[in-house]
Design a protein that fits this description.
two-stranded antiparallel ribbon, mainly alpha
């Protein structure tokens, strides 16, 4: 058996094993409560997959993924609130009726349609990311400046939501009863939601793997290592970065839309600075340069947060901060750097996607990606 054939068998075997564990074993052995918790962790992992592409391969330290997660979540939550209100014959959701609002705000009306809602979940985060990315990357904003800007955007978005009573203010939107006509109180439907989240996560990992192995993935790595050399080769690094940023936003918005019916609530606390940093912590701990590292790191951190918060609620924040500092300071490659067998992204000729020791995205890399891409281009 040739090496490429054996590699393909290992890859497809890994995807089959993941599908077996998530779609068959987990629903069979976990209680409804624990399955719901795991579904929430998978939503976080879906965000982490996008961050792994943008940060791990592209060198863009995205501290504002909570914005795109929140867009997808609030779009879905508004649709579910409207559907629940119409189910009982009300013109507006109950929290609006209590506040004296008698008709839907204009920006709520389109989301009464399931088709518009699904399209908005799929397209709106990506569109916002495209506009922001073009505005930022065309001006060659990168490194710490991009990180601070994205974090400020997440903070502004959370503050905006707190001040909007038509989106529930600081309480957010909750108490959803149906999901596109399916009763959320039925355990069969909650398991269906978990399977949807698991299937979407597996598909997202496959998508990012394919992007990483493509010519675009090599170009993104080259931009990360030596942006100026890529520009001299005739490519616009801004366009390359925007694509990765849009894909990461798309996955975050999709994760937010799945998070709402699985968890049953979304509020500004789920989309601000702290959640955005939590997404990043999981990616860093798992290993941002690997394919499965962000997934395993996000699930592990979310599980640890739940477990430790139940026992030591006041200490989790400090433990999380200490863990992030230790990983960034001493394990820049995450747990993958300890030799844990987490599959690395591979180029089409088997080269690993390695990030230099210098800060990602600042153009201080060793130029390996750019050199490889230039060699193949010639």
């Amino acid at each position: 058996m040739s090496a490429p054939t054996a590699a393909r068998i290992r890859v497809w075997g890994g995807f089959a094993l993941a599908a077996l564990v998530l779609l068959v074993l987990a629903p069979a052995v976990l209680s409804d409560f624990r399955l719901g918790q795991l579904g929430r962790y998978l939503c976080y992992a879906l965000v982490a997959v996008g961050i792994g592409l943008a940060w791990g391969r592209g060198g863009m330290l995205t501290l504002g993924q909570g914005v795109f997660f929140g867009i997808g979540a609030y779009v879905m939550a508004m649709h579910l609130q409207i559907a629940d209100a119409r189910l009982v014959g009300d013109a507006v959701p109950s929290f609006m009726a209590i506040a004296g609002v008698r008709e839907l705000p204009a920006y709520w009306v389109p989301f009464a349609s399931p088709v518009v809602t699904v399209l908005a979940v799929l397209l709106l985060p990506a569109l916002v990311a495209a506009v922001l990315g073009l505005g930022v990357f065309k001006r060659r904003v990168k490194g710490a400046y991009f990180a601070i800007l994205s974090q400020a955007l997440a903070a502004a978005f959370a503050i905006l939501l707190v001040g909007q009573q038509t989106t529930g203010g600081s309480n957010g939107l909750n108490r959803f009863r149906t999901f596109f006509g399916y009763n959320l109180n039925d355990p069969v439907n909650t398991r269906m939601l978990f399977c949807i989240a698991a299937g979407v996560l597996i598909a997202a990992v496959a998508l990012v793997r394919q992007l990483g192995r493509s010519r675009y993935g090599e170009l993104l790595t080259a931009v990360r290592d030596q942006e100026e050399r890529v520009r001299f080769l005739g490519y616009d690094p801004a366009n390359v970065k925007v694509v990765a940023y849009v894909v990461a936003a798309f996955l975050a918005g999709l994760a937010g839309a799945l998070f709402v019916p699985i968890v049953g609530i979304v509020s500004p606390n789920d989309v601000g600075v702290v959640p955005s940093l939590s997404f990043l912590v999981g990616v860093a701990i798992g290993g941002r340069t690997t394919l499965l590292g962000p997934v395993l790191g996000a699930v592990g951190v979310a599980w640890a947060q739940t477990a430790l918060s139940e026992q030591l609620p006041s200490l989790w924040t400090y433990a999380q901060g200490l863990l992030f500092i230790v990983v960034i300071g001493f394990l820049p490659a995450g747990l993958a750097g300890l030799g844990i067998p987490v599959p690395r992204r591979r180029g089409s000729r088997g080269r690993g996607c390695r990030i230099p020791g210098d800060a990602p995205g600042d153009g201080a890399g060793d130029g390996a990606g750019a050199a490889v891409f230039a060699e193949r281009r010639s």
